[in-house]
């Protein structure tokens, strides 16, 4: 099962003034590995901040995102989301894995996949309400996917699939988004649509941590830049934003 579906009924768990994301002396090791993939990490991402996570392949970007999503355990230290421990099923957080890591060949329509974002609220065994369906339709409209609502997700282009994942996160009403190289292989139109959600007007309530391969100078639109290198993390640009929460 894709990690994108590991959600349970909504259990609010956050401190209003806590950072959106935080690591305290965090170390993470892959099963069976002799050395940790990440060690000694200490950073904080304020609520409402847009943070870029840059680094070469194999530098630990995906490992860190999975740890913050609660999909990999910490070997030592702490990974915190809104002041609470990182764990699967945090309804305030949505994790968008690399599109290539997701199994798309399952029989579900675009609308039903987006509507799955409401499961943290309604649970897996209650039928979605009319309000849930309205939220799904609104998310589809924001990502310009209304005309594709009944199409199977496996029949979509790569850019459309990535937009579906973001629409699901919006339908979930997540406050913190972890995105693992979401622009890889994206067409220009899909990228523009996604950027309007992540960086456009009305996006200040979101906290974004995005792994990216983009050149450092192209990350000027981010408030915070973290660089992964040799299992460590360096802050290249600190966040000074004070966005509304």
Describe the structure.
With 245 residues, this protein is of the alpha/beta class. It has a single domain, classed as 3-Layer(aba) Sandwich (Rossmann fold), CATH 3.40.50.300. Helix content is 24%, strand content 23%. The chain has helices at 61-68, 110-115, 119-122, 130-142, 158-172, 188-199; strands at residues 21-28, 38-45, 50-54, 76-81, 84-85, 93-96, 176-180, 207-212, 224-229, 232-237. The longest helix has 15 residues, at 158-172. The protein is globular, with a radius of gyration of 17 Å. Mean pLDDT is 85; it is low at 1-11.
Q: Tags for this entry?
A:
single chain, 23% strand, Rossmann fold, 245 residues, 6-stranded mixed beta sheet, 10 strands
What's the layout of helices and strands?
Layout (H helix, E strand, L loop, with lengths): L20 E8 L9 E8 L4 E5 L6 H8 L7 E6 L2 E2 L7 E4 L13 H6 L3 H4 L7 H13 L15 H15 L3 E5 L7 H12 L7 E6 L11 E6 L2 E6 L8
Parallel strand pairs: 3-8, 3-9, 6-7, 7-8
Antiparallel strand pairs: 1-2, 1-4, 4-5, 9-10
Helix pairs in contact: 4-5, 5-6
Give the DSSP E fraction (strand runs of 2 or more residues).
15-25%
Q: How does the overall form come out from the CA principal axes?
A: globular
Biggest pleated sheet:
6 strands, mixed
Here the CATH topology equals: Rossmann fold
**Runs with pLDDT <50, length 5+?**
1-11
When the domains are counted, the total is: 1
Biggest sheet strand line-up: 6-7-8-3-9-10
Tally of DSSP helical segments: 6
* Strand/helix succession: EEEHEEEHHHHEHEEE
CATH class: Alpha Beta
What is the average of the pLDDT values? 85
Radius of gyration: 17 Å
CATH architecture: 3-Layer(aba) Sandwich
Name the helicity range: 10-25%
- What distance lies between the first and last C-alpha atoms, to the nearest angstrom? 33 Å
CATH superfamily descriptor: P-loop containing nucleotide triphosphate hydrolases
Structural class: alpha/beta
Q: What's the number of extended β-strand segments?
A: 10
